[in-house]
Amino acid sequence: MNRPSSHSSPICAALVLGSLLLWPLFASGAAPKLEKDSGPAGKEAMRFSVANVCDLAGKNCQNMIAANGWIESGVVNRFNEQSNALPEHTTVVIDSAGGDLQAGMELGRAIRGKRFNTRIGVLKPSTNKNNINFELSPGRCLSACVLSFLGGVERDLESTDIVGFHGLTIANAKDQVGKPSGEERAKEVLGALGRYIELMGADRRITDFMLLAKGDNIQRIPTETAKQLNLDNQQPTPQSPWRLQATDSGSVLAIVNEKQAKGQATITLALTKPANGENPAESLRLIVFVKPYQRSFNTSDMKLAFPESATVLMRARTKVLGTKTLVGWRQNGEGMQMVMNIPNATQETLIQSLNFELEIAFPESANKLGLERITPFGTAGLKGAIVILKK
Q: Which pLDDT band holds residue 307 (cuts at 50, 70, 90)?
């Protein structure tokens, strides 16, 4: 196994994930360094190739990237060589037994940066004699591969695919005075993995499967569980209910927030009484606040993505609802905010609907941030909140 050089501080603890070794050696306050061993004998480094994939009828063909092999340092360079000329939403089909967790996360970030999608599987030559292209067959995605797979904007796996983790154990060693214990370092490594998983829009409880696995055995993640954890994000997530909240000044707000399923932002809607003595029975005000999730982009990027003229539409039952912009987009803390007037007729349509869509007309410059134009919201709890606001 590869070891830290002789001038490194003594090893206090090690995490072994399958055949993957994580040496948590880092200065206080620095991010944990995730390293690897050379991998099982015979494992070849991940290779990438572009293939034209069709359905069984030889139709609906599209270019996909086949990613096969052991994930290790340098994987992103090889990935970029094959993918730079491909458009957004290209699918990366992954089949891997694992590898270096740090490299797995780097590949995941590279996939997300290009706005690519991911699937688990193997591309094989078509069995149709009239079709010289490729077909998708079931595959496996283990340990570090799961982290790379999470980079997909849209992530899809089938019940026939194998996805999961090898066993996780902690090697005991004597702690140094003044240094974090092995247990503390293990927690920091798992914390880093959890933050990455959340940044990619999934549930950090995925790390539980690392802890459940034993030795070389694979702790498989069932397909339905993968959907619940948003590892597979093809299933729409339930919308959050509206809730009442009091401000420091005693005012009452009706609030709901949703994290964009495949984007990098959280959108909060706050419904309030109108200002300047206007009649709340006739209209209410809606504050739209957009904040980057886990600081996925910075303030200067946000200013470009939210020009004051960027319009906001509300749709329910496929119809555009009547609204009026009162205050255009302005920076507010870590996010951007605008204010709309919501007339009584629009309120009535909303409370009679199960859900609605909020569409923000982002300029093309916002595409690189992963912002989605349309975000769905539910209306549970909205009717009661509006009744209280109108009193």
A: confident
Q: Tell me what the pLDDT averaged over the chain comes to.
A: 79
CA distances from 32 to 27, 58, 75, 101 (A): 8, 48, 20, 12
Count Cβ neighbours within 10 Å for each residue of 105-114 and write b for 16 or more, e otherwise. Answer: bbbbbbbbeb
Give the integer Cα–Cα distance in Å for 134 and 125.
4
- Regarding beta strands 117-120 and 91-95, do their DSSP bridges make them parallel or antiparallel, or are they unpaired? parallel
Q: Is the pLDDT of residue 28 over 50?
A: no
**One-character DSSP codes across 284-321:** EEEEEEEEEGGG-S-HHHHHHH--TT--EEEEETTEEP
Rounded CA-CA distance 309/385 in Å is: 30
Single-letter amino acid code for the residue at 92: V
Tokens 């458009």 -> residue: 87
